[in-house]
């Protein structure tokens, strides 16, 4: 059966070809009864009679039709016309992200790239919550169009290799690989069992491509690309564009970890961390994924070793520090002046904040860092004086608790050994003022006290909770941007809490 303009398939009148892929061709078609255009995907004739291809094609419709989300292309209908399978889908009048980037690379700014993967991530999280994997996440499957409000809409399409997380039967192309190698996770390439984190890996690869114009592991031979995914360290965007924040490298290192257990658990976590990295220059990894100072040892990630189950505890990769060689004295002078101006501006804002909040003056405060599991099993550390964290609070007018002074060469923050007895003993001296609980433990979220260690909630000090991902990262990974982040995120909380 030859399909072309003017052909009729179960009442759908074919207008023109929209695109073609490995499994079939997508046409623009007039709906049989409604005044609208649909996208009609028709399985190629040579595949319609193949039982394996037919099973995958039918499954695409069944799985994707169950998804109802503004960032996923809707499935309207499916059928069989003279032995040739077809699916009627939502028609998106626009362009895919890969074509948009190829047409005008400058149009894909860092913030537009973030917008695209954030919207796609919302659709993926929706599918993952319903037990479905996409397995072919790439810019060519991100459809872009202009909404009625003038804002860009982003929709994820082509669940042609979609799979239920409960489906143990692999469908391949004549025993081959179905995803696009440039964006495929190590476990896909090795044939290991997949879960939703394979899609998150591919989403990170897609962001890298949109942001830099390069594939994460460029190569002329598929084997070279596969070896990159399996054994090379995650790529760094700053190696392509040094003007981007190094924190973006940290986020991509987590999202593209070789071991799925070391990646973000949701697309939302990934894109929230990217937003923090681009906006504030700190890798504001959400909740359980915030790197802890005790675990910030840079190391080369191991090659991927296929495994059916993983018992490794998440160990977050912190991107290596990129050394910048400055060759011109004038350039150094300009950099120093800019840094000095920024620091002076922040000092002025701190002085203004202190003057506008006289309630802070002289109030006793200490910063307690809480991570890992919640409750008595939590990892706890206390920030000591002198330190950047204590100085920031003192600049706002607080008095840092004198019971927490750094002694000799001890680490700052000071670890508190696990267990309720040691926690209670460490906090007996916190008997007045305020305790700032910086949370990324498993029950953190919403600024609440839920399942904080009893040693914290039982103190006579007033407990203030800080669990905003960007602010938590700013305190733990102190940088030139930390003060500004905390003025934006922490200061409003202190104003409400300190009387």
| Helical amount | 25-40%
CATH topology title of the largest domain: Transferase(Phosphotransferase), domain 1
Largest sheet: 6 strands, antiparallel
Shape: elongated
How many domains? The number is 3
* Model regions low in confidence, pLDDT < 50 over at least 5 residues: 166-178, 286-301, 307-342
Catalytic activity: L-threonyl-[protein] + ATP = O-phospho-L-threonyl-[protein] + ADP + H(+); L-seryl-[protein] + ATP = O-phospho-L-seryl-[protein] + ADP + H(+)
Keywords: ATP-binding, Kinase, Membrane, Nucleotide-binding, Serine/threonine-protein kinase, Transferase, Transmembrane, Transmembrane helix
Domain Protein kinase: 12-278
GO molecular function: ATP binding; protein serine/threonine kinase activity
């Amino acid at each position: 059966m030859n399909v072309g303009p003017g052909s009729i398939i179960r009442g759908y009148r074919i207008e023109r070809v929209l695109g073609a892929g490995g499994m079939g061709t997508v046409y623009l078609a007039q709906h049989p009864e409604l005044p609208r255009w649909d996208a009609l995907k028709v399985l190629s004739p040579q595949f319609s009679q193949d039982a394996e291809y037919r099973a995958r094609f039918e499954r695409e419709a069944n799985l994707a039709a169950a998804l109802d989300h503004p960032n996923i292309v809707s499935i309207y209908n499916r059928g069989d016309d003279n032995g040739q399978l077809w699916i009627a889908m939502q028609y998106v009048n626009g362009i895919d992200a890969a074509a948009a980037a190829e047409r005008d690379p400058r149009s894909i700014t860092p913030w537009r790239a973030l917008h695209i993967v954030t919207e796609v991530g919302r659709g993926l999280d929706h599918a993952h919550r319903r037990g479905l994997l996409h397995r072919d996440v790439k810019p060519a499957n991100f459809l872009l169009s202009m909404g009625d409000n003038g804002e860009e809409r982003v929709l994820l399409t082509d669940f042609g290799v979609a799979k239920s997380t409960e489906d143990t039967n692999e469908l391949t192309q004549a025993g081959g690989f179905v995803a696009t190698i440039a964006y495929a996770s190590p476990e896909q390439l090795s044939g290991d069992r997949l879960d939703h984190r394979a899609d998150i890996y591919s989403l990170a690869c897609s962001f890298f491509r949109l942001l830099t114009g390069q594939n994460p592991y460029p190569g002329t031979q598929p084997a070279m690309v596969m070896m990159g995914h399996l054994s090379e360290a995650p790529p760094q965007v700053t190696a392509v564009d040094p003007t981007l924040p190094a924190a973006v490298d940290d986020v991509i290192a987590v999202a593209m970890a070789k071991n799925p257990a070391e990646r973000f658990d949701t697309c939302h976590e990934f894109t929230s961390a990217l937003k923090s990295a681009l906006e504030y220059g700190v890798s504001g990894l959400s909740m359980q994924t915030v790197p802890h100072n005790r675990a910030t040892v840079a190391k080369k990630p191991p090659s991927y070793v296929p495994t059916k189950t993983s018992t490794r505890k998440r160990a977050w990769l912190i991107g290596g520090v990129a050394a910048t060689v400055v060759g011109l004295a004038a350039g150094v002078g300009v950099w120093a002046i800019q840094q000095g101006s920024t620091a002076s501006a922040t000092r002025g804002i701190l002085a203004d904040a202190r003057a506008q909040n006289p309630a802070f003056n002289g109030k006793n405060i200490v910063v307690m860092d809480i991570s890992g599991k919640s409750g008595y099993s939590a990892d706890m550390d206390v920030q000591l004086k002198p330190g950047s964290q204590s100085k920031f609070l003192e600049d706002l007018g607080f008095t840092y608790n004198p019971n927490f002074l750094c002694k000799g060469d001890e680490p700052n923050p000071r670890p508190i050994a696990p267990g309720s007895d040691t926690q209670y003993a460490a906090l007996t001296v916190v008997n007045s003022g305020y305790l700032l609980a910086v949370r990324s433990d498993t029950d953190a979220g919403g600024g609440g006290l839920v399942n904080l260690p009893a040693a914290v909630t039982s103190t006579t000090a007033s407990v203030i909770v800080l669990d905003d991902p960007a602010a938590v990262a700013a305190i733990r990974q102190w940088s030139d941007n930390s003060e500004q982040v905390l003025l934006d995120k922490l200061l409003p909380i202190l104003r409400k809490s300190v009387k």
